[in-house]
């Protein structure tokens, strides 16, 4: 959080506005009258929607001309940042802080010139932080899956015996996975369920499907956008450990997350490779159009 100078004991004309990383807004310092104080509060409420706003202002009838316009311009400039501070002084306006928008400095500069005029005296010290960038901060699909694998290292999603009910102990694991997925943007993800080899194969397949569905439902309940997700049960297929031991069976009872790779992409690539390998590839093979259309 940007630190402001302590002016509590100084009799200087100054107005400060701060925005914390947690979204708390503090407004303190001098305003010319009660009407302006109300305007400042309402304007901040509009610019920082659903944020906590704390007022610590005082009336001063001897403020320089144009003070109110400078205060409102400063608050609007601050709203362009993720966190930071604005200091309105007798002759200058300073704004500094952090942002996830690489063009924030230019936006703020144009805003202040528009509101205060070409000759306005202001300072801008804004730092771009990639982690605050809603676009650059989005991990790649592979990174998302990697984060889920890391989050479930040494712990797993578990169910009550023979059912698709998530155990109480596994709720924090699902919470962590949900937090990761919310930061991953729109992904096509497969939630796969597996069982051990005990019991009938048909029943195991259905149980694994029900468990994969239950995980998808739990993620949806945690406000994860799952419209591009799918759940599928593989039953006792593809064991990762020996089903003849209890530890092995425990390892085989699992939920896995993976990216969905469109089959059409794979098929079309194969067709192109085959055509390129043929001597008469310049001609369109009979039925080629139908094949592509069906794959889509």
Question: In a few lines, what is going on in this structure?
Answer:
The chain has 296 residues and is of the alpha/beta class. The chain contains 9 helices and 9 strands. The protein folds into 2 domains: 15-132, hypothetical protein tt1634, CATH 3.40.1520.20; 141-263, OmpA-like domain (60s Ribosomal Protein L30, Chain: A).
Polypeptide structure, described:
This protein has 296 residues and is of the alpha/beta class. The chain has two domains: 15-132, hypothetical protein tt1634, CATH 3.40.1520.20; 141-263, OmpA-like domain (60s Ribosomal Protein L30, Chain: A). Helices cover 38% and strands 19% of the residues. The strands form two sheets. It has a six-stranded mixed beta sheet with strand order 3-2-1-4-5-6, with helices on one face. The chain has a three-stranded mixed beta sheet with strand order 8-7-9. Helix 1 packs parallel to helix 2.
Features:
hypothetical protein tt1634; 2 domains; 6-stranded mixed beta sheet; 38% helix; elongated; disordered C terminus
Shape assignment: elongated
SSE string, helix = H, strand = E? EEHEHEEHEHHEHEHEHH
- Which structural class matches the secondary elements? alpha/beta
Sheet with the most strands? 6 strands, mixed
- Give me the side-by-side strand order of the main sheet: 3-2-1-4-5-6
CATH class of the largest domain: Alpha Beta
How many beta-strand elements?
Answer: 9
What does the average pLDDT come to? Answer: 87
**Radius of gyration from the CA trace?**
30 Å
Distance between the termini: 51 Å
CATH architect. name of the largest domain: 2-Layer Sandwich
What multimeric state do the chains show? single chain
Integer count of domains: 2
Q: What fraction of the residues are assigned to beta strands by DSSP?
A: 15-25%
């Amino acid at each position: 959080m940007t630190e402001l100078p302590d002016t509590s004991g100084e009799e200087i004309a100054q107005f400060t506005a701060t925005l914390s990383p947690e979204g708390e807004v503090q407004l303190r310092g001098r305003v010319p009258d009660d009407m302006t104080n109300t305007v400042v509060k309402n304007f901040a409420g509009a610019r920082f929607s659903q944020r906590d706003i704390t007022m610590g202002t005082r009336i001063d009838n001897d403020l320089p001309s144009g003070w109110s316009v400078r205060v409102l311009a400063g608050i609007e400039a601050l709203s362009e940042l993720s966190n930071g501070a604005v200091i309105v002084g007798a002759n200058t306006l300073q704004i500094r802080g952090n942002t996830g928008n690489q063009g924030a400095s230019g936006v703020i500069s144009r805003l202040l010139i528009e509101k205060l005029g070409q000759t306005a005296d202001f300072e801008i010290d804004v730092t771009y932080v990639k982690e605050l960038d809603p676009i650059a901060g989005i991990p790649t699909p592979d990174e998302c899956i990697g984060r889920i694998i890391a989050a479930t290292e040494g712990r797993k999603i578990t169910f009550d015996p023979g059912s698709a009910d998530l155990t109480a102990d596994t709720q924090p694991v699902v919470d962590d996975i949900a937090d990761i997925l919310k930061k991953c943007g729109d992904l096509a993800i497969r939630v796969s369920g597996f069982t051990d080899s005990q019991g009938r194969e048909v029943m195991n397949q259905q149980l694994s499907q029900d468990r994969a569905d239950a995980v998808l439902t739990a993620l949806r309940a945690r406000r994860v956008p799952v419209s591009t997700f799918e759940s599928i049960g593989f039953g006792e297929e593809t064991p990762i450990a020996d089903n003849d031991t209890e530890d092995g069976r425990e390892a085989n009872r699992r939920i896995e997350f993976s990216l969905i790779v469109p089959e059409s992409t794979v098929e079309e690539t194969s067709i192109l490779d085959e055509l390129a390998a043929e001597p008469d590839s310049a001609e369109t093979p009979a039925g080629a159009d139908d094949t592509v259309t069906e794959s889509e």
